[in-house]
Structure formats: C-alpha cells, structure tokens
Specification:
This protein has about 400 residues and is an alpha/beta fold. About 45% of the residues lie in helices and about 20% in strands. A five-stranded mixed β-sheet has the order 6-5-4-7-11. It has a five-stranded mixed β-sheet with strand order 14-13-12-15-16, with helices on both faces. A three-stranded antiparallel β-sheet has the order 1-3-2. The longest helix is centred in the last third of the chain and has 25 residues, at about 300-325. It binds zinc ion (ZN).
Length: about 400
C-alpha cells in the first residue's frame, strides 16, 4: 500500500512546473496570460515558475502577440533543443531507431532488418545500442543531452527496471530486456508494449488526440491494442491489459501463435491472413509486407474471399471492443491495419456495426491512424518525453 505523505512546498513547486510544462508542450506557444487561464494557476505562480523554466533553458521565448490595448505579450514554448529522446520499435521484421528533439521533430533514423523467424534477443540488443550510437552521431547530438531511450516491444512487459518481457511469438519467455540494455548504456530506459507506445503517439499527436476513452488497434503481423481511459493508458493489474489479438472470435477455430485457438490474431494478423491465402493458392512465403500489399491489390476470387473474411473477423473484434469499452474513438493503425483500412474502412465500420449494440456503435468513431507505420518508434520516444514532463528538474541530472 502506498504510504500517505504530506505534500511539501517543493512537491507543490514541482507539480506547478509539470502543469505549465505540459500546457506548453501540448498547447504552446502560449503567453503567460494564456497559461494562467489554461492551468488555473495564479498569475504570480505562472510568472515565477516560467522564470525558473526560462533560466533552466527548458522553455524559450517564441515571439510576441498583440494584446487588447495593452503591451504585446511574449509567447513561450518548450525549447526543442533542451533535450532529445531516442525511440525504438522492435517489430517483427525490423528494429527501427529514431532520434527526436523535444519538439518531436525527427533528426535521424536507422533500420535493421530482422528475419521473421529469428529474434535472438542478444542481436536485438546489439541493434538497439548500435542504432542509438548511429542516430546520435548522424545528428551531432551529444549523449549528455539525451533524456532517455524508449523501446516499444511485442508481448507483455512487466513493470520495473528489469523490463521482463513475455513474447511467446518471438520465443522470448521472461527476457529481462532492461537488464540486457543496461549493460550497454547509461541512458534512462523506458520499455513498453509496442501497441501501447503507438497508442500514446496517436493519443498525443494523431487520430486519438483529445479523446478521453479510446482504443488504438495495432494490426501488423500480429494484433495488439492500447486502451485509453480518462485520457491515460489502461494497463490492468499487472500491465497486460489490451491483449485484444488473443480475444476468441471463433471458439475452437484456427491455431494461434499464442498456443490457443480461434484468436482474432489467427484471422486478422497479416501473417495469418497470408497463411489463409496460401491455403487457397499455394505459393512461396515471401517477405510479409510486400506480400500483404500484393494481396490487397489482387482482385482474384481467392484474394477477395480471404480479405472479406479478414474484414469480418476484424469487425467482430471491434464490435466486442465497442460493447465492452464504449469508446468515443477507435483508431486503426499498424502497417497492415493501415493498408486494410485504406481499402476497406467503410466495410470495417459496417462489420463492427454488425457485431455491436446499436447505441455504443453510434457513439464510436472508427478512424485510421494518422502517424503511419512509424508510430511505434515515435510512441517509444513519448515514453521518454512523458518522464521528462513529469520531472524536468531531474531529467538531465540523472544521465
Ligand atoms: Zn492467440
């Protein structure tokens, strides 16, 4: 149980600092006057805390605006060059590493291909560390200005510094990724499930922006989900909430990579969709992403049948989600989800309608992700930025 603790003056100052920094990060540039109105803090507090933030270099002036009759007002914004975040997507077919500044501008990126069948954790760790070195040297950013390294991974991530991962489809059972990375870097580490990092990116900057209750679906080789309630990510009792890909859509149905049968992923994940197509039209299993794109362009009866079934099962999964969560918005993302959605969004909406109750369906918008297939890496960087916004005074001192 959490210990009761008296809030000290220092806690209060830190809370005010976080409040103002978040207001500027998400809504800036803004004048002190606007910040007072937005945050409900007093004008004196806004004045004092922004002076501290300016002195620390965390925020900067960004021009002036005319005010009604009075003196022009100085605009403030987060200083994009105060610090940097590295975001990593450990995907099924690649490790992608991106470097972003605090304005969330991408400064450099690199990709390492992974063979789908081989996800040796030592190799993945080497790619992450080498990628971090490479993007820093490419952008000319010194390591001491980096606020942290965020990593989006498949599977379940246990909360805690070891970041123990359970991803049976990767052959990762209890892999302490945090400990392995820690041996090769001093940077603060943030590890989370890739669907959750993607969800946070869409929530902050994409199709989920402004939503209080939402679900962000990641459809790639497999199927994941980020549940958003009260504007924050819902994690459940031990961090595994949102394993939507392993929801049963056909009891006793096709074998899933998780070991069970009839899961949504066994029907709507790109790997399973391609397997189903090859059962109808035998052929070589090529690279997944081009093969999936080719299937979507294929107008043969076999391709149409497999895709119609995919939409049907995806709709069943979405319908149950609508009934259970009553979300205001569902965002469909992930590389395969975006490809499917670009061709079939009206059909996907219709299939979701056919599998949900009328009232919650009518209140739910189903939209495509706006950040593209890179949203997992960008979302991993948001984990770092979130840590910075929470405690900007400690952020760079801890490196
Ligand atoms: Zn499963």
């Amino acid at each position: 149980m959490m210990q009761a603790r008296r809030r000290t003056v220092r806690d209060l100052r830190r809370g005010n600092r976080e409040t103002l920094l978040r207001a500027l990060f998400f809504g800036g540039p803004a004048s002190r006057h606007e910040l007072t109105a937005q945050t409900g803090l007093s004008a004196a507090t806004v004045s004092n805390v922004t002076a501290d933030l300016l002195a620390d270099g965390v925020i900067a002036e960004a021009g002036q605006v005319e005010s009604d009759g009075g003196r022009p007002r100085v605009l403030l914004r987060v200083n994009p060059d105060y610090g940097y975040a590295i975001g990593v997507d450990v995907g099924e077919t690649h490790v992608r590493v991106e470097l972003l500044d605090l304005g969330m501008n991408e400064l450099a990126r690199t990709d390492y291909a992974l063979r789908p069948a081989r996800h040796d954790v030592e190799l993945v760790v080497r790619h992450i560390l080498a990628g971090a070195d490479l993007v820093l040297s490419e952008a000319g950013v010194p390591r001491e200005r980096v606020l942290g390294l965020g990593v989006g991974v498949p599977g379940l991530v246990e909360p805690g510094p070891e970041a123990v991962i359970h991803a049976p489809t990767y052959g990762w059972q209890g892999v302490a990724l945090g400990t392995l990375l820690r041996a090769g870097t001093e940077l603060p580490l943030f590890v989370d499930n890739g669907a959750k990092t993607m969800g946070q990116a869409e929530l902050w900057f994409g199709a989920g922006r402004g939503a209080s209750t939402a679900a962000v679906a990641l459809v790639g080789s497999g199927v994941g989900l980020c549940l958003v309630t009260d504007g924050g990510i819902y994690r459940g009792a031990s961090g595994s909430a949102g394993e939507w890909g392993h929801m049963t859509v056909a009891a006793g149905g096709r074998a899933c990579r998780c070991g069970n049968r009839g899961c949504l992923e066994a029907y709507a994940g790109a790997e399973a969709v391609l397997d189903r197509y090859r059962e109808l039209v035998p052929g070589e299993a090529g690279e997944e992403e081009p093969a999936f794109a080719a299937l979507l362009a294929d107008r043969s009866p076999e391709a149409e049948r497999v895709l119609a079934e995919t939409v049907h099962y995806l709709g069943a999964g979405l319908g149950t989600l609508i009934n259970l969560l009553n979300p205001e918005r569902i965002v469909l993302g992930g590389w395969a989800g975006l490809l499917l959605g670009r061709r079939f969004l009206p059909e996907i909406r219709e299939a979701a309608r056919a599998h949900s109750l009328a009232l919650p369906y009518e209140r739910t918008g189903i939209e495509l992700g706006l950040l593209g297939p890179d949203a997992v890496a960008r979302g991993a960087a948001t984990l770092v930025v979130d840590g910075f916004l929470l405690d900007s005074q400690r952020a760079l001192q801890s490196v």
